[in-house]
Amino acid sequence: MIDENSVRRTEQTYANPDVVAQRERLLSMLAPQPGERVLDIGSGPGCLLEAIAEAVGPTGAAHGVDPSPAMNALAATRTDGMPWVRIDDGDAVALPYPDGVFDAAVSTQVHEYVADLAVALGELRRVLRPGGRALILDTDADSPVWHTTDRELDERVLAAWEEHLVHPRLPRTLRGLLRRAGFRVTEQRVHVMFNSQMTADSYSAGTTARFADGQQGLTEADAETWLADLRARSDEGDYLQSIDRYLFLATVA
Asked: Where do the coiled-coil regions begin and end (predicted)?
């Protein structure tokens, strides 16, 4: 359940420089053009949706769809004054749009949480026009790396984090899934989130607590021990964190 505190944390995460850089990478690959109709699946607080709306302009249309009323309210506030933006309740397996209505669609860390990928990718293809393009970004659960002194605890924390994903290694199979759904993959890229310090505005500072969430038998003391070790590594100038996000650009075959 996404509550007000979750919304606030998400908005803060979307504003940090690492996530801004990721959003710029997405926009560069998607390349929305003036007059296009573009869909953001899992639009969240509306940061990417706002940027898409600016790119397509008032002659185009930018649609966001998300299952969270709280996120949709935040996105509506962010895009207020852009009448060519529309935000709808819905999710990836039941997109509330007619067939072939969009020129392009994007999803950021959505499909790794979707149980029925065949249905979700079929829905994605259905709402795109012939030749329309889709851009999907998801994370591989084996990619997060932190430098810690307690390797065993670090492995338990990462295993606990993996439990919240339905498809923790989706990027490895996504190209084939897209092909079977009627897409042709035209470009594949990796975007690395890398921090050499745990600064207040770094991506890793905003996400470390969520990696220690009580799964795998972790206690609050375990989580604090892990976090204290990371803070010590940063204070000593010995910090390293990275995580890989994989981007797949595809067109309707």
From this structure: none
Say which residue the tokens 């207020």 belong to: 80
User: Which is nearest to 102 in space by CA: 58, 44, 56, 69?
Assistant: 56
Q: 31 vs 66, 102, 197, CA distance in Å?
A: 22, 14, 32
Residue 209 has pLDDT above 60, yes or no: no
Q: What is the pTM of this model?
A: 0.92
DSSP string, 125-181: HHHEEEEEEEEEEEE-TT--EE--S-HHHHHHHHHHHHTT-SSTTTHHHHHHHHHHT
- Cα–Cα distance between 85 and 101 in angstroms, integer? 15
Q: How big is the CA angle at 50 (ends 164 and 12), to the nearest 5 degrees? A: 45
What is the set of domains in the chain, with CATH numbers?
4-252 (3.40.50.150)
**CA–CA distance, 6 with 66 (Å, rounded to integer):** 15
